[in-house]
């Protein structure tokens, strides 16, 4: 009897770009992909942080480089991605939140969050896919979305709206680009302990709300996202597209 062979989760020979890679979840994603063998371009606005990360990765013997990128600059992003070799793997972890009661949302805050979380994410995916299609190559495109793309949350109307939007266009892109062997998915973490979420955890009432909703009884760490990124990037997920992996500790199980 010939037994089936488990697909490899190694990424040797693959090129990857991670947007929002200067810290937090984005840095963790870049680290996971590099450790799995990919040649990773870390992209973000904070070039000093990128340089530190690349140096640390190279010290591990991994392949990494840095690239300044602001995904709200749609034309600049398209020019940057279109002007180099296609990326087999792309992860967008750039994100912005301006939480507050929905009755107090200001148009300028709405626009700022939408420009990063929804518009920037949409056109980042588009640029990656265009380059892959032009090169007639398959690929895996991922957006770090949120559990808040599946449920509502207090003082998060704008943020939830952008993440629900990401979930929607991910499905549509997956349908359109499937014929090109390009897979498009999201990863939806719960509250992950980073500098981005520290204010939530510093508020006793909000921390209690978070911990009560997470069924596994602990907040998330960036390491909790790393396995999902490698999985979706690899041959192990070759039939996975147009969906989301919820890394939420059971938050959305209610």
Q: Please, could you describe this protein's structure?
A:
By secondary structure, the chain is α/β, with parallel strands linked by helices. Helix 1 (24-35) links the parallel strand 1 and strand 2. The mean pLDDT is 96. A seven-stranded parallel sheet has the order 3-2-1-4-5-6-7, with helices on both faces. Helices cover 43% and strands 15% of the residues. It has a single domain, classed as 3-Layer(aba) Sandwich (Rossmann fold), CATH 3.40.50. The protein starts with 14 loop residues before the first strand and ends in a 7-residue tail after the last strand. It is built from eight helices and seven strands.
Tags for this entry?
single chain; alpha/beta; Rossmann fold; seven-stranded parallel sheet; globular
């Amino acid at each position: 009897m010939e037994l089936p062979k488990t697909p490899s989760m190694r990424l040797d020979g693959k090129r990857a770009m991670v947007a929002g890679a200067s810290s937090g979840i984005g840095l963790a994603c870049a680290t996971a992909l590099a450790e799995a063998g990919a040649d990773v371009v870390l992209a973000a606005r904070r070039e000093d942080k990128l340089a530190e990360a690349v140096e640390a990765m190279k010290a591990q013997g991994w392949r990494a480089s840095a690239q300044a990128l602001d995904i709200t600059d749609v034309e600049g992003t398209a020019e940057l991605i279109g002007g180099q070799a296609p990326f087999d793997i792309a992860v967008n972890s750039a994100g912005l939140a301006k939480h507050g009661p929905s009755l107090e949302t200001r148009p300028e805050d709405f626009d700022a969050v939408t420009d990063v979380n929804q518009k920037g994410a949409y056109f980042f995916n588009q640029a990656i896919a265009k380059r892959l299609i032009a090169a007639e190559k398959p690929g895996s495109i991922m957006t770090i979305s949120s559990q808040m793309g599946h449920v509502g949350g207090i003082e998060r109307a704008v943020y939830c709206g952008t993440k629900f939007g990401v979930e929607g266009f991910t499905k549509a892109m997956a349908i359109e680009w499937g014929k090109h062997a390009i897979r498009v998915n999201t990863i939806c973490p719960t509250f992950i302990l980073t500098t981005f979420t520290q204010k939530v955890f510093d508020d006793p009432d909000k921390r209690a709300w978070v911990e009560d909703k997470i069924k596994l009884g602990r907040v998330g760490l960036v390491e909790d996202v790393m396995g999902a990124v490698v999985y979706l990037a690899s041959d192990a997920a070759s039939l996975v597209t147009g969906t989301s992996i919820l890394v939420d500790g059971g938050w959305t199980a209610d």
